[in-house]
């Protein structure tokens, strides 16, 4: 928000997301801060409506209604759309992309015969890629899947257009806005090894060699590690005033990764406990976090009506997650369902089924790739929310056979 108001941009958080979610709504409404959330809710609603209508066309009414209810009744939906997070915008982009994927799959690539559709797909793909620095873990595998259903000419146009659009944003646009490159990027990417190191240095530092301890204590004082670090939660010390994040940049990826393996060897229990706690939200089917509404300074808490709605939403979140945790909370359950359906509905000796399986890979690539970049296990609430929307869409590929009549009509 500060960047959008001051026009001084830093790519620590993607500038494209700042322009799309903050700058444009503020410009269109003469600086009304509420427009940021208002526009986000509208775009989210458009994406969801488009997805459900497409599911209704290619599957059946009952399946479309079930998917809609799963999404709307999930309390995490109302929570995440109330915050202008890059994760929320990423979810919107992915929803559009997977809806395009439905059309491409059920039409056997005929949807791409329209030049407008090719341009639309490329624009949304690149826009989604630019919304998070790790979004490429989803968009590149999806592009590969789509290319399998396109002709050689269509594929070349899509790839060239994507490269062109990406270059336009990253080079002339960012140069015109004088976007600063972020410092300490490695610090944000090394959450996994830092948590492994933290698990051991906080509980059994005597088992470590001097070099590893020197690194850890340059990063944070000994007493901070021992008194404040929580397994799998580097954020418990990440914002401490005594933290020296520049130490991570000084040592670099290779050395810190080596320290991680040193810690695993020295105290497997502490290191692995920390790593499992950090990454388990992606694959655990017995729970990961408790959804909650974070208070912020922009709430009109003096308004009784708004306070009532907030209290109602908090109560609904509490009771619905307690009653239906497997439907609304456990990301690992959705991953397991997706995997089981894919394996049970696919003939691994058939090329056509392998092309279909490629559509599932973006979810696994993004979720399991991103879990290695986490610094805090509760970040799963926003990092992986999109899974609750995309999984039902993907299941339509495997639960519904193509019908020639619908392909011709649609």
Structural overview:
With 410 residues, this protein is mostly helical. 69% of the residues lie in helices and 0% in strands. The two termini are 42 Å apart. Residues 404-410 have low confidence and may be disordered.
Q: How many beta-strand runs?
A: 0
Binned strand content:
under 5%
Number of helices: 24
Described by strand count, sense and barrel closure, the largest sheet is: none
Termini Cα gap: 42 Å
The geometry reads as globular
Structural class: mainly alpha
What's the average pLDDT?
A: 89
What is the chains' assembly state? single chain
Describe the secondary-structure layout.
Layout: H1 2-6, H2 15-28, H3 35-58, H4 61-73, H5 75-80, H6 86-106, H7 115-129, H8 136-147, H9 152-176, H10 185-189, H11 191-201, H12 210-219, H13 222-228, H14 235-238, H15 246-266, H16 268-279, H17 304-323, H18 325-328, H19 331-345, H20 351-357, H21 361-370, H22 380-383, H23 387-399, H24 404-409
